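Review form for a predicted model. The reviewer records the input and the model, then writes brief findings.
Reviewer: anonymous (R2)
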Amino acid sequence: MRHTITRRQFLTASGVTAAAACAAGLLSACGSGSSGASSAAGGQDTSSYTILYSSQPSTLNYLTTSSDVEMQVGANCVDTLLEFDNKGALREGLATEWTFDEASLTWTFQLRDENWVDCNGQVVAPVTAQDFVDALRYLLTPAYAAANVGLVTSYIAGAEAYYDYQVNLANAQAGYVADDGTTYTVDGAGAVTVAAPGAEAQVFQPVSFDEVGVKAVDEHTLTYTLTYDFPGFLSLLVYLPYEPAYGPLLEEMGDQFATSAETTYSCGAFYLSEYVPLESWVMTKNPENYDADNVFIQTVSRIYNAEAEVNGPEMIRRGEIDEATIGSDILDSWLADPETKDLVSMDRPNTNYTYFYLFNFMPYRHEFSGQTVEGLDAEYEPDNWAKAINSTNFRRAFLYGINNAVTLAVTAPEGYEGYMLNTVTPPSFCANDDGVDYTQCGDLASFSTFFDEAKAKEYRDAAIEELTAAGVTFPVKVQLPYNPSTNDWDRQCQVLKQQLESVLNDGASFIDIQITQGPSDNYLSSVRRAGKYCFQLCNWGADYSDPETETDPFYQAPGEYGGRYAYLRTAVEDGIVTGETADAIMAYMTAVEQAKTITSDINARYEAFANAEALLISNALVVPMGMSVPAYLATRLNYWEGQYASTGFSNKRLKGIHVLDHYVSMAEYEANRDAR
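Model under review:
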C-alpha cells in the first residue's frame, strides 16, 4: 500500500492564525518582507542580533554533536527535509513532497533546488540527494564518534550492521584489546573475528555501505528504508543526524569538518561567516536560501564573555547587546526599577526539555570502544557510593525526600507549580489514538507528587540498616556538580542540598552533599559522560514525536554505552549493581525492547512505553524534577514568531523572527503568547 503525504501534523499549539493576530495588532512585527534597515520608530538597528555566550563549544560539527550550544550552526545554517512552523506543524523544507511505501518500508522525498554556500556566501554547488547519503556515511564512521548515531542505527535498514562492522574493523586495525581480554582480528577478506575469553569467537563478515537503507535515486530523489514502520520518523528528520553535508568537503576535511567557518558549508537561513574560538562566531543571512524572504535578521553575532551572566544585563542597560538572561538574583530589582521593568520578558516555553536527577551507576573507570568513563575521584569514596546506590531504599529516600517545588522556585519564582513533573516525559508531548495523554497511559497514570517526608525517612531508616550491614559508612558522600555557565544552577544546588539534607539528616547522619563546580567548557564530556558525579541534575530533549525518544538517556543495548547518562546496563554487566537493583534495571531494558516492537497499535505502544518509564521511576533509578522553565530575558526578539516543536532543535532557529527596535516587555510577551 502506498500513501502520498504532502504534510503531516503532530502536536500543535492552539490559538488564532498569525494573519489574524497581525490584523488585531497583537504581534510586535508582522509581514514577510526583508529587514535590512533600522527602525524609524526607535532608531535601533533591526537587521542584526548580538548575544553573549560563556560556554565554548567543543565542536560545531552538527553531524556528530548532541550538545545544546553546539547545535546552533546545524539548526540555523543547514536546512532539513521538513521543518516545523511556529505552531508545531510539519511543513515542507528541502523536500517538497514525500511518500511512504508500507510494503518496502521506504520513504521517498523529492528535493527542491537549493545551493551550498561557503563562509563568504558564495555558491559552491547544488544540494543533492547524495549529500544526505554522504552525511549519513560520515555519521556512521566510528572514528568521528557521532553522539546521535543511535538515531540512525535504530531506524535505518542495514545501518546497525554496517556500523557494528566498522567498529569491530577499527578495533582490529588498531590492535585494540578490551579490558576483559577481548581481541579483534581481521583476515585478508575483511572478516573480523571478535574473541572474548571463555566465549565462542564471533565472526563479522564485511558489510558494505551500499547495504544501508539510504539511496540517492537521482539528484532530487532521496529514499530511506526503515527497519520497521517507525511512527516518529518524519519528526526525526528535523534533527541533526539527518541533515545533509556537502560530500566533497566531508571527504577532504574528515575529522576537521566544521571546525571553522572555512570548513563549514551552509544551505540554510544563514551561513557561518566567522568563527574564532573564545572570541566570537557570526552567522550571516544566506541570500541563496529558497526561503530568504522569511529571514529577517541580516547578522547574528555571538560574542564570548566568560562572565556573561553578570555582564549581559549590564550591557542590556547600555543597549550594547540584544539579549541577556535576567537571573533570579537580580530579577526582583529589575522588575522594581522603572528604568528596567519594561525590559524584562520571558523565553517562549519549551516543552522539549525535561529535567531529572540521576545517580551515577558507573563510579569506576570503564573503557568502552571510543569512550572512557573515568569514574569518581577517590575523595568521593567510590566503593562506598557503589554499595549505597545498590540499595533501592537509599535511592527512594531521595525520590520521596526531594521537594521539587523548592528547587524550581529558584528559576521560576512565579508559577513554578506548573513546571513540576512526576514523570520523565512531559504532559502534552504526545497522545495515543484515543487522545489520551501519554503520561496518563499505563502505570504512569497513577503517579502523583512523590515528595513525602515521612516516607523518605522510612526509606532512609531501612537503607541505614541494610547498608550498615553491607559495610557502608555514613554519612554517604554525594558529589553534586554544576556547570557555572548555566544561570542559577549553582543556586539550585545550594537549595537542593539544604532542603534534602534537612529531611534525610533529621535525626540521622545519612548524606553529605558536596557541591562541586565543573568546567564551563565541555561540561558534559568532563563530568556526566566521564562519571565525575554521584548525583546531578540532567536534562533531555526529545528528538522526535514518539515516547521511544524518552528512553534514550536510560536504555542501553548489551555492551553499548547508550546515551552516556547513567550507564545502567553496564553497571549490571560489570557487577556494580546486583540483586533487586539489577533486576529492576534489566526489567526496564526488557520492557523498552518489547515496547519498540509494537508499531501498528499506537495505544498498545504508548502503554508499553509508559509501563517501562514507570519501572524506571518507581525503582528510583531516576528522580523526576520538572520541565524546562522559561528564562527571564531582556530581548529584542519576538520568539513567538519562530519555529516551534516539542522535539529536536526547531526552537533554536531564528528564521521567521524579527529583531525589534525595543526590548520586549512582559505585557507585549503575554499578548504575543495569547495570539498563538
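Findings: The two ends are 37 Å apart (CA to CA).
Further findings: The mean pLDDT is 90.
Recommendation: see findings above.
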